[in-house]
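Please fill in the sequence for the structure shown.

STRUCTURE ENCODING:
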C-alpha cells in the first residue's frame, strides 16, 4: 500500500534523528509556557519584544473585532480590502521609509508572491545559500534561472552577476538569517545591485522591530534608509553636485530595494508586508498569485498591528534590555564544549553537530524545565545540528542565568 511506503520513510527519518513532531501549548506565548500539561521556561519563540500577549494588543484586537467582525470575507481585490488594511499599509510604508506597502497573510506567501511576480523565464535570481526555505521555494516557482552564492560571499556574487547579460536580475536574501542569527551585508549587496543593474529583495522577518532606530529594521540598522532616503556610506555623493541632486541620486539607489517583513515575530501578531516603489506594489497587486488569489486577513488584525507599530516605535527600553540579555548569554556560554555561533541578534545558535546529540541535549534541558528547540537538517546543513536559542525582551536576567547554569551542568 502507498501508506506503507510513507510510513517507511517516516521511520527512516526517525532513525536518523530527523523526524519532526508537534507540541501543544496550553498557555499564551511568553517565556513561561505550559506544554502538554507541564510548565517550561521557553527560549524558542520569535516573540522578540514580548508583544504576543501584550494587554494593549489584546484590547486592540477586541476593539477591532467589535468594529470589523472576525473575517474579511473575500480577497483584497474583490470585497475584502478594508480601510483598516489601507491605514496599516500606509503606516508600515512610512515606518520603514518606503513610499508604498502591501499586506500579505504570511511572510511565506509574501516571498512566493513577490519573486514569482517580478521575475520569470529569461530572468535570473541570485540567492544566498542559507536563505529561508520560503525564498528557495519562491525562486523555484518563478521559473527564472537560479544562481546561488556561498553564504555572505560578495566576491562570488559579483562574479555570478557579471556572467548574466540579459533579463532582470534579482538578488534575494534574508536580512537576519533565521538559523544562524547573523546579518546580511546589505550595503555591499545594494552597491552590487547598482553596479550590475539588479534589484535587491530583503526578507527582514527577524530584523523588523528589533534592529535599527525605533526598531525600523535591518535597512535602518545599516543607515540605508532614514525617512525614505539612503544614508549608506557606500552610496557616495557626486563631488560637484548640489545636495538636492545627491539626495535624488541616493533615493535612486534605494529604489532598487524591495523590503519584506513579517508581523508575527517582533510585532507579536500575524501577517507580513512588502514595502517598495509604487510601480512594484501595483505589479504585486496585479500579478502576485499569493496576494490575488487568497482571502484577506481579518481587518481586526490590522487594527491590532497599528497598535503594535506604536509599541515598537516606543520600544527602545525593550530593545536595550534584549541587547543586555544577548551580552549576558554570550558571556555565560563562551566556555562550553559546544560553540556559540557568531551573532549579535536575538537568535543565538549553539552548534552541537550530531543530530542525536542535539536531540539529547534538548531533551535534557526539557527535563530541567527549559524549552529550547533542536534544529537539524534539512533546515540547516548536514553536520551543523544546533540548539536555536532565541531571546525575548520578556525574559529576565534570572531566566538567562537559569539557562546558562543548566547548559553548564549538562556540559560536565
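FILLED IN BY: designer on duty
SEQUENCE:
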Amino acid at each position: 500500500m502507498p501508506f506503507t511506503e510513507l510510513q517507511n520513510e517516516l521511520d527512516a527519518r526517525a532513525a536518523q534523528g530527523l523526524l519532526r513532531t508537534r507540541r501543544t501549548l496550553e498557555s499564551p506565548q511568553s517565556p513561561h509556557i505550559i506544554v502538554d500539561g507541564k510548565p517550561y521556561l521557553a527560549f524558542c519563540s520569535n516573540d522578540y519584544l514580548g508583544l504576543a500577549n501584550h494587554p494593549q494588543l489584546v484590547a486592540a484586537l477586541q476593539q477591532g473585532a467589535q468594529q470589523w467582525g472576525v473575517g474579511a470575507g473575500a480577497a483584497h481585490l474583490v470585497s475584502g480590502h478594508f480601510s483598516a488594511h489601507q491605514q496599516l499599509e500606509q503606516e508600515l510604508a512610512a515606518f520603514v521609509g518606503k513610499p508604498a506597502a502591501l499586506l500579505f497573510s504570511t511572510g511565506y506567501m509574501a516571498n512566493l508572491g513577490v519573486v514569482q511576480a517580478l521575475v520569470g523565464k529569461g530572468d535570473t535570481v541570485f540567492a544566498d545559500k542559507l536563505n529561508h526555505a520560503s525564498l528557495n521555494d519562491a525562486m523555484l516557482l518563478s521559473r527564472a534561472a537560479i544562481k546561488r552564492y556561498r553564504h555572505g560571499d560578495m566576491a562570488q556574487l559579483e562574479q555570478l552577476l557579471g556572467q548574466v547579460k540579459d533579463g532582470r536580475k534579482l538578488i534575494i536574501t534574508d536580512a537576519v538569517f533565521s538559523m544562524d542569527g547573523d546579518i546580511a551585508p546589505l550595503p555591499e549587496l545594494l552597491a552590487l545591485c547598482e553596479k550590475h543593474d539588479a534589484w535587491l529583495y530583503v526578507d527582514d522577518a527577524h530584523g523588523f522591530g528589533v534592529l535599527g532606530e525605533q526598531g525600523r529594521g535591518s535597512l535602518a540598522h545599516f543607515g540605508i534608509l532614514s525617512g525614505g532616503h539612503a544614508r549608506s556610506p557606500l552610496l557616495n555623493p557626486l563631488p560637484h553636485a548640489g545636495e538636492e541632486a545627491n539626495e535624488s541620486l541616493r533615493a535612486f539607489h534605494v529604489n532598487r530595494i524591495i523590503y519584506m517583513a513579517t508581523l508575527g515575530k517582533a510585532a507579536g501578531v500575524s501577517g507580513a508586508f512588502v514595502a517598495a516603489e509604487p510601480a512594484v506594489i501595483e505589479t504585486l497587486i496585479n500579478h502576485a498569485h499569493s496576494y490575488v488569489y487568497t482571502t484577506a486577513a481579518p481587518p481586526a488584525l490590522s487594527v491590532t498591528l497599528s497598535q503594535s507599530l506604536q509599541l515598537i516605535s516606543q520600544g527602545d527600553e525593550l530593545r536595550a534590555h534584549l541587547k543586555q540579555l544577548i551580552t549576558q548569554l554570550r558571556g555565560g556560554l563562551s566556555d562550553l564544549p559546544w560553540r556559540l555561533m557568531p551573532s549579535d541578534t536575538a537568535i543565538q545558535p549553539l552548534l552541537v553537530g550530531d543530530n542525536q546529540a542535539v536531540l539529547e541535549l534538548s531533551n535534557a534541558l526539557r527535563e530541567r524545565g527549559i524549552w529550547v528547540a533542536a534544529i537539524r537538517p534539512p533546515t540547516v546543513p548536514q553536520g551543523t545540528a544546533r540548539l536555536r536559542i532565541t531571546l525575548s525582551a520578556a525574559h529576565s536576567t534570572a531566566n538567562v542565568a537559569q539557562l546558562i547554569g543548566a547548559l553548564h551542568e549538562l556540559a560536565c
